[in-house]
Amino acid sequence: MNENRFRWRNRQLREHASIIDGKQAPTKVIKHATYLNVYMKQWMEGNIWIDLDRIVYVGKEMPGNIQGTDIIDAEDQYIVPGYIEPHSHPFQLYNPQSLGLYAAKTGTTTLINDNLMWLFLLDEKKAFSLLEEFVELPCSMFWWGRYDSQSVLQETDQEEFSEKVMPWLNHDAVIQGGELTSWPEVMKGDDQTLYWMQETTRLRKPVEGHLPGASEKTLTKMRLLGVDSDHEAITADEVLKRLALGYNVGLRNSSIRPDLYDMLKELVDRGHTQFDHFMMTTDGSTPSFYEQGIMDTCVELAIEAGVPVVDAYLMASYHAARHFGIEHRVGSIAPGRTAHLNFLRAPDDPNPHSVLAKGEWVKRNGEAITTDKKIDFPAFGVTPLRLDWDLQEEDLQFSMPLGIKMTSAVILQPYAVSIDASAEKLSEENDESFLMLLDRDGEWRVNTILKGFTNKLGALISSYSNTGDIVMIGKSKHDMRIAFDRMKEMGGGIVLTHEGEIIFEMPLKLGGVMSDEKMEQVMAKEKELRKHMESFGYRHEDPVYTLLFLSSVHLPYIRITPVGILDIKKKEVLFPAIMR
């Protein structure tokens, strides 16, 4: 069964129907179930019949044929639909497989994923073949189709990116367009992106916006231009503004924007009772943020904020399924749906002790069950980073009058550089560092000074970035050379060096941007990285997001991009990239 084609074969459908007549036996029956009916918005009692990965019956009856059927007694348990993460960035050091398998064990059995890294790493043929592999995992994986790269690319790279947009939007596994970070350009007359948005709507797929701080006027215009949802509200007022204009609203609990509880608490305190067009998302949080769970944590926070229990579960399941047009597949416990079921100890305890994902146990009685389904990423071209060029002495020239100052983990401002950047090593009496964005193909570089990242670290080199290019930050050019050579040797990753010694390394063997390790190992390495960075003076929320967003042009005020240092508001290149 190819789930991305949204169908079971005719033979399977006939077999499912024959189970109702007692001619065949289901593979599993959950009896004495107290389950959440999302359509009735109430808890109901009955039996749930499952055949392999599909629910075939929900009601009071037991099947007429139970030969070989696994009978599961769910008395004193409560069952809810598997949770849905509607806005996943599955490339935050982890990879889509490791995230999906980990998420399923926490009860998040469906993810709608960003396709950005596939656009950078793979051609369409390899990427689409790889998407088929995710169908074999015990979780449901769907994708977005990006309109823009979140950065400003070199001309030939931008042309290649643009050519991939429509094939992705047309793919069956892609169920939304967006997220639309280039909305200011659309407002100013970008008809190419507006055309893609219209085509998305024609394909009956929603368009997701990315509208932080947008006024009512801007929200209205973007709604007229085709945007259906947005997850950038950070206050209750912003939530209500979007809801009133007909948006489906994503409420965020992420590692850099944990706003969910406060927004919901304020809405509840104001007497708000309408939650039917709310979803919840963790918005691609960094690994260790997920130690306590994913969407189960969001449900828990919603209940703590005073949201009615049933509405909290619907916000994490059915509402997203309905929004994306996949409610006939996931998001409810009803005949014909994929067998994603979370078993709870109590109605107000969303952390499942057992999870069925596609009808398979991925967690039972508190114990995770390891799956033997693995994706061979290298077979599809997702291999370690291979650099056939070296760092040159002239690359380490940082005589630039304009630098970049961090005011948070992701907000950057311009500032006038007053230090002597020609030195081999910068003083530890200030928090200024060398900064370079280096093309992974070795064709260009952008050099400047970064203020506010560290006050003493020799070097950090990372092939993990928004565009897949190489980020180099540090006080010491000597340490930068050592770190670069080690990163190159291990096929991509993050390397920290200090006083000539390698003090941390994290291999990212999948394209230089993702680890091939399990989620738990990635969490441990990220926590180690964070601890190192804090010891060297990093004082912001999330160093991983700093590396990711240095080149992301959807955030203010200045960025280092493949075309040079860019003024975001004016869309002007202040200092162009240097060809090597």
Automatic annotation (TrEMBL):
Adenine deaminase C-terminal domain residues: 425-571
E.C. number(s) listed in UniProt: 3.5.4.2
Keyword field: Hydrolase
InterPro entries: Adenine_deam_C (IPR026912), Amidohydro-rel (IPR006680), Metal-dep_hydrolase_composite (IPR011059), Metal_Hydrolase (IPR032466)
Coiled-coil ranges from the UniProt annotation: none
Record-given protein name: adenine deaminase
Family per similarity comment: Belongs to the metallo-dependent hydrolases superfamily. Adenine deaminase family.
GO terms for MF: adenine deaminase activity
Domain Amidohydrolase-related as annotated: residue spans: 78-362
Pfam families per UniProt: Adenine_deam_C, Amidohydro_1
Catalytic reactions of this protein: adenine + H2O + H(+) = hypoxanthine + NH4(+)
Highest rank taxon of the organism: Bacteria
